[in-house]
Automatic annotation (TrEMBL):
Organism (species): Agromyces salentinus
Catalytic activity field: ATP + H2O = ADP + phosphate + H(+)
Pfam family membership, one: Cation_ATPase_C
Domain of life: Bacteria
Domain Cation-transporting P-type ATPase N-terminal per the UniProt entry, residue ranges: 16-90
Protein name: Cation-transporting P-type ATPase
Length: 903
């Protein structure tokens, strides 16, 4: 099914309730507005429609997840080695490999168990109680018992228990940011919308799990459970399957290749031994030694260690990953789709500019801090106290000095502006109490309050009005000039200023007043609405959710790193486009309505020129992510609301905000505890660093593995110790204990310089490519040759059953080469001997000591099959190991010269 088809099947549920008149909705729902459903009818409908609850598929059991881990190819190979080791009496080898298997399975299971809770978190949001009218009686019932046709009462502070059509309301506003992404409360009413109205603009509807911030309403329930908008998001989440990270896919492919190489080597060597007439026990022993040499037993553990290091580093930078594999995916990110509110912006409505008395003023200060000033170009002093009262009094919001807000965010912005004009709005409302008021209503779009305030040395009765500029301007006949004189209203100048503010993405609000005679107080109080006319315009303010100071720089860093950044928001496209331009996102702003008119092919073709998406739905976000992925992008999607959850789960890296909904966090792979876009860009940088270290480790690991395979093949071909070049325990000791410190050294290496100055790596060019294969084979061949020397020309003849000096020297050369490889191969083509080197050198001292101890301490000699070496034998081992240094550093020197020549 195409994205468009999926969108079409989920866009509606048959009836466009928002487009019907209240009476028609009641009739269609077969209910009564005054009496509601009967108890019997409600019970029947509950049986038909099911409970008003979100459904989720049962998660797989822990045992089932563990079984899937056991069936991984690498694990199966290690289990086979464990069984064979036990059969031939190699108990030490069997125990070490079994511990590795157990560690891999437990770690993998723990990560999988965390991943399966997105829809469950949605279900936890279900409202527990609802006030419903049945048989003409107002009852409080469990919200799960609501059915279509129920009549529900709502008031300020309620969570909406189901999707409903408003029958009547008073001053109703709802906060729908969790569903639509719209940051401001939405005025609601009973008037029907058009059939084509987008979800975010359906003012005649209320939706499950959104909150009532103001007013009261009576609604008829039209959708419950999985048919609500929240239920649709739950359905979208179930459609989005779990995806493996690019590194997982590459390592899966590498594991298969290594399996083929390992067992092919085992087969060849066993066939050679069989042709030589070796016994079954000898062949099994030889096969075990070769398998342990050829299978990268430490690969899963070591990659997990490096990813865990990256996860720890991310956590210190306030970015929490839910799975270790996601650390690496971050580094491959090539496209970021970012939510606006709270991520790119502060999520604090702020007045940035004010048009007062015909002059434009700039407002300084950040967010809800009271610190800031109103600065203009005019020499005429601003009547700050009077303006502060006019701005601060007709508001219900409160803002503490610490920036905590109670009430409408837009009103909070005006309270802060009043504070910057020297007026404490809370105290002013106490000093000048309201004598009458006209509450805000979406029908007339303004609020008015009547107070007696000081003006030019006397107490004056004044009606202060704030509201939508077009409505307020239409009721103004005069305006206050710069010198506080009453002059005819300059409508053209006001309209020009409104257009300027709107073009820069500002929300606008007009303030006006009417000075009245004291003798009119009683008549005004009786009918304040009729006095909201013949107003004097005080001014217009421009409000914005300001950008985070670091957001613009972070976008520039992302662009420099070849990452395409897009902003996806519930705001209108014009507002979003202005903010996108300020951020430097690039050209192209489009609305959700326009998106729906485009086919997948058309939208995909236009994506390079589209960087801002406004008024989008959850389906739109999911569709955009899928289309970007279809074009080969590794997509990071940020968000904090329930409406972001499906797209976040679909994205390669879903990013939730720490302050966001629990649903979004559960669907995400990365949680930003500081809600900051700049943190995400820094997380991408850490992901790139981790990937560079993983490739360094794989270069190190594959070199060791190939050298061991070559060594055992040569031993079989030349009948050295009947093909047993090294004992299995010796191989395991090097591959696990010695190599463990190599991982620590690679992780501790300084970060590669300029890692954010080049494009993202192409996921199609995996860790196994022509350049890496040549590198692995050449370096592996060198290690093989220097380890072969003591086996061919050592002080004694190697034996498959008894410890010998020759085999011990080969073991020591391999061990020292492992340590030196970690130092030299931690970066390429840069020299491994360049500073900073101290931190790495301190770590690599320990495996050298382990190698010495394993040849000198009796208990380790017996476990590993080693003997003590003489001083000259140690010097010989060191000399052979230094050959590796000459070859590797020489190769990198030539490569650096070629790179400089190309430039």
């Amino acid at each position: 099914m195409t994205i468009e088809a999926q969108q079409g099947t989920t866009e509606g549920h048959g009836i466009e309730w928002w487009a019907l008149a209240p009476d028609a909705v009641v009739a269609q729902a077969k209910t009564e507005a005054a009496r509601g459903l009967t108890a019997a009818e409600a019970e029947r409908r509950l049986a038909d429609a099911g409970p008003n609850a979100l459904q989720s598929a049962p998660p797989p059991s822990v045992w089932r997840i563990a079984l899937s881990q056991v069936l991984e190819l690498m694990t199966l190979m290690l289990i086979a080695v464990t069984i064979v080791s036990l059969l031939i009496g190699q108990v030490t080898t069997a125990i070490i490999v079994a511990v590795l298997v157990l560690f891999n399975v437990i770690t993998g299971t723990q990560q999988e168990v965390k991943a399966r809770r997105s829809v469950d978190a949605l279900a936890k949001l279900q409202t527990p109680k609802a006030r419903v009218i049945r048989d003409g009686v107002l009852l409080q019932i469990d919200a799960t018992g609501l059915v279509p046709g129920d009549i529900v009462e709502l008031e300020s502070g309620d969570l909406v228990p189901a999707d409903g059509r408003i029958l009547r309301s008073a001053n109703l506003e709802t906060q729908e940011s969790s569903l639509t992404g719209e940051s401001l409360p939405i005025p609601k009413g009973s008037a029907e919308n058009t059939a084509s109205t987008a979800l975010a603009d359906r003012t005649s509807m209320v939706f499950q799990n959104t909150s009532v911030t103001r007013g009261t309403a009576r609604i008829v329930v039209v959708e419950t459970g999985m048919r609500t908008q929240m239920g649709r998001i739950a359905s979208l989440l179930t459609q989005v399957g779990d995806k493996k990270s690019p590194l997982q896919l590459e390592l899966d492919g590498l594991t298969k290749v290594l399996g083929i190489i390992a067992w092919s080597a085992v087969l060849v060597i066993v066939l050679i031994g069989f042709a030589r007439g070796q016994s079954l026990d000898e062949l099994l022993f030889l096969a075990t030694a070769v398998a342990i040499s050829a299978i990268p037993t430490g690969l899963p553990v070591f990659v997990q260690s490096l990813l865990a290091w990256g996860a720890s580093k991310l956590a210190k930078e306030r970015a929490i990953v839910t799975s270790l594999n996601d650390v690496e995916t971050l580094g491959a990110t090539s496209a970021i789709c970012s939510d606006k509110t709270g991520t790119l912006t502060l999520n604090m409505m702020t007045v940035r500019t004010a048009w007062l008395g015909g002059n434009t003023y700039r407002v300084t200060g950040e967010g809800y801090s009271f610190e800031g000033h109103v600065i203009g170009t005019s020499d005429e002093p601003l009547d700050a106290p009077t303006l502060g009262l006019a701005i601060g009094l007709p508001n219900d919001a409160t803002v503490s000095p610490e920036g905590d807000v109670v009430g409408d965010p837009t009103e909070a912005a005006l309270v802060v502006l009043a504070a910057r004009l020297g007026i404490d709005a809370d105290q002013a409302r106490k000093d000048y109490p309201r004598l009458a008021e006209v509450p805000f209503d979406s029908d007339y779009k303004f609020m008015a309050t009547l107070q007696r305030i000081p003006y030019r040395g006397e107490q004056r009765l004044v009606l202060i009005v704030k509201g939508a500029p077009d409505v307020v301007l239409g009721r103004c006949t005069t305006m206050l000039s710069e010198t506080r004189e009453v002059v005819p209203v300059a409508s053209d100048a006001a309209t020009t200023e409104l257009e300027r503010m709107s073009a820069t993405g500002l929300r606008t609000l007009a303030i006006a007043a009417r000075f009245l005679d004291d003798g009119d107080e009683g008549r005004i109080a009786a009918d304040p609405m009729s006095w909201v006319e013949e107003l004097s315009l005080i001014g217009i303010v421009g409000i914005v959710d300001p950008l985070r100071t670091e957001a613009k720089d972070a976008v520039a860093v992302a662009h420099n790193a070849g990452i395409d950044v897009r902003m996806i928001t519930g705001d209108h496209a014009v507002t979003a486009g202005a903010i996108g331009a300020e951020l430097g996102l690039g050209t192209g702003a489009v609305s959700g309505a326009d998106l729906k008119q485009m086919s997948d092919e058309e939208l995909s073709g236009r994506l390079p020129d589209l960087h801002v998406f406004g008024r989008v739905t959850p389906d739109d976000k999911l569709r955009l992510v899928r289309l970007l992925q279809a074009k080969g992008a590794i997509v990071a999607m940020t968000g904090d609301a329930v409406n972001d959850a499906a797209a976040i789960k679909q994205a390669n890296i879903g990013v939730a905000m720490g302050s966001g909904s629990e649903v979004t966090k559960q669907a995400a792979k990365l949680v930003l505890t500081d809600d900051n876009f700049a943190t995400l860009v820094h997380a991408v940088e850490i992901g790139r660093i981790v990937y560079s270290k993983i490739t360094a480790y794989l270069r190190f690991q594959m070199t060791q593995l190939l050298s061991l395979i070559m060594l055992f093949l040569a031993a079989s071909a030349f009948s050295i110790a009947e093909g047993v070049a090294l004992f299995p325990a010796q191989v395991l000791f090097i591959n696990f204990f010695v190599a463990l410190f190599a991982v620590f050294a690679i992780a501790a290496d300084a970060n590669p310089p300029g890692i954010m100055n080049h494009p993202p790596r192409d996921p199609k060019v995996g860790v196994v490519n022509r350049v890496s294969l040549v590198e692995w084979l050449v370096y592996g061949a060198v290690i093989f040759l220097i380890a072969l020397v003591p086996l061919l020309w050592g002080p004694d003849a190697p034996s498959p059953t008894e410890p010998t000096a020759s085999m011990t020297m080969a073991y020591v050369v391999l061990g020292l080469a492992t340590v030196l490889s970690a130092l030299l191969m931690r970066r390429t083509p840069e020299s491994g001997l360049r500073a900073p080197i101290a931190a790495v050198a301190k770590i690599l001292v320990w495996p050298v000591l382990l190698i010495v101890a394993s040849t000198e301490i009796g208990v380790l000699q017996r476990m590993l099959g080693t003997v003590s070496l003489t001083g000259w034998q140690w010097l010989g081992c060191i000399g052979l190991t230094l050959v590796l240094l000459v070859v590797v550093e020489g190769d990198k020197w030539f490569r650096r010269r070629r790179l400089r020549a190309r430039r």
